[in-house]
């Protein structure tokens, strides 16, 4: 039997970080560093207003602000799920009274950080890829009927491979955003009533100016190109009518961005490719 081919990589070549606002870096340290086993970046954002958390080649960015969890979850991988469960249980007493939660579910850990952001933890060896820690996907709950249009938007406007599976009213779009990385948009009843949130995702992309112009022609640029080689957009719309389908802020980084391919400090060694 032939080995299945991995999906082609499109214009999005790397999912770099997810940004959550939090209101207490001590609680963030307990959950992300001591509980999940990730590493606070010792070189960048080491002050008291923001903290960056490294997991392999990716990060969480955790600026201080009003937390607003989004409907969906961030998926992460760790080398030993049993150890992570024990570490999370060890910090649980200090997180009492917050939204923190952890439970085993279908071979993963379904967790919530102290503010209710959902983070699902997988064991790295059971996922494609070779990194002991990573962020393989971000999953979003979207209104029924939106998945097909979202997939088409990513394919035709953002040049990303995207597929849709499932049955009517419960379909899911999977968008390839880098090697062994995906966004998933799952149709859920009630998702259209979800409150607004202030989180974002950050990706590196090729075809940068082509994508910038395509979004600009549709009036979708929310923060224009800057000297740091990035821009932002948030609204995913129907390709034909322009009707809104879903909103999630994207920090879109050029391959000329100064942070592209920067090494990240991790307490668990990352097997960087050798040229």
Tell me about this structure:
The chain is an alpha+beta fold and 275 residues long. The chain has a domain at 18-189: 2,3-Dihydroxybiphenyl 1,2-Dioxygenase, domain 1 (Roll). Helix content is 15%, strand content 36%. It has four helices and 16 strands. An eight-stranded mixed β-sheet has the order 2-3-4-1-13-16-15-14. An eight-stranded mixed β-sheet has the order 6-7-8-5-9-12-11-10, with helices on one face. Strand 14 and strand 15 form a beta hairpin. The longest helix has 11 residues, at 25-35. It is globular, with a radius of gyration of 18 Å.
The radius of gyration over CA amounts to 18 Å
CATH fold type of one domain: 2,3-Dihydroxybiphenyl 1,2-Dioxygenase, domain 1
Question: In percent terms, what proportion of residues is strand?
Answer: 35-45%
H/E series: EHEEEEHEEEEHEEEEHEEE
Structural class: alpha+beta
Distance between the termini: 32 Å
The overall pLDDT average reads 95
**Unreliable segments (pLDDT under 50, ≥5 consecutive)?**
none
Tell me what the CATH architecture of one domain is.
Roll
**Total helical elements:** 4
- Order of neighbouring strands in the sheet with most strands: 2-3-4-1-13-16-15-14
Helix content: 10-25%
Top CATH class of one domain: Alpha Beta
Summary, kept brief:
This protein has 275 residues and is an alpha+beta fold. Helices cover 15% and strands 36% of the residues. An eight-stranded mixed β-sheet has the order 2-3-4-1-13-16-15-14. It has an eight-stranded mixed β-sheet with strand order 6-7-8-5-9-12-11-10, with helices on one face.
């Amino acid at each position: 039997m032939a080995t299945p081919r991995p999906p082609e990589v499109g214009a999005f070549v790397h999912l770099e970080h997810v940004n959550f606002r939090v209101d207490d870096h001590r609680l963030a340290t307990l959950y992300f560093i001591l509980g999940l086993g990730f590493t606070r970046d010792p070189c960048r954002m080491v002050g008291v207003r923001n903290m960056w958390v490294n997991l392999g080649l990716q990060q969480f960015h955790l600026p201080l602000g009003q937390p607003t969890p989004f409907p969906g979850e961030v998926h992460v991988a760790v080398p030993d799920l049993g150890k992570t469960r024990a570490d999370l249980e060890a910090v649980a007493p200090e997180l009492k009274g917050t939204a923190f939660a952890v439970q085993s579910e279908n071979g993963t850990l379904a967790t919530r950080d102290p503010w209710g952001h959902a983070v699902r933890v997988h064991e790295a060896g059971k996922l494609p890829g070779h990194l002991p820690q990573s962020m393989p996907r971000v999953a979003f709950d979207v209104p029924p009927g939106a998945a097909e249009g979202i997939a088409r938007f990513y394919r035709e406007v953002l040049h990303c491979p995207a597929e849709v599976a499932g049955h009517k009213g419960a379909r899911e779009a999977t968008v390839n955003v880098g090697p062994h990385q995906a966004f998933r948009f799952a149709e859920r009843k009630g998702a259209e009533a979800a409150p607004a949130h202030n989180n974002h995702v950050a990706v590196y992309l090729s075809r940068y100016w082509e994508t910038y112009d395509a979004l600009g022609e549709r009036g979708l640029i929310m923060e224009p190109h800057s000297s740091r080689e990035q821009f932002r957009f948030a609204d995913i719309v129907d390709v034909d009518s322009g009707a809104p389908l879903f909103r999630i802020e994207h920090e879109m980084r050029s391959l000329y961005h100064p942070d592209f391919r920067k090494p990240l400090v991790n307490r668990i060694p990352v097997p960087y490719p050798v040229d």
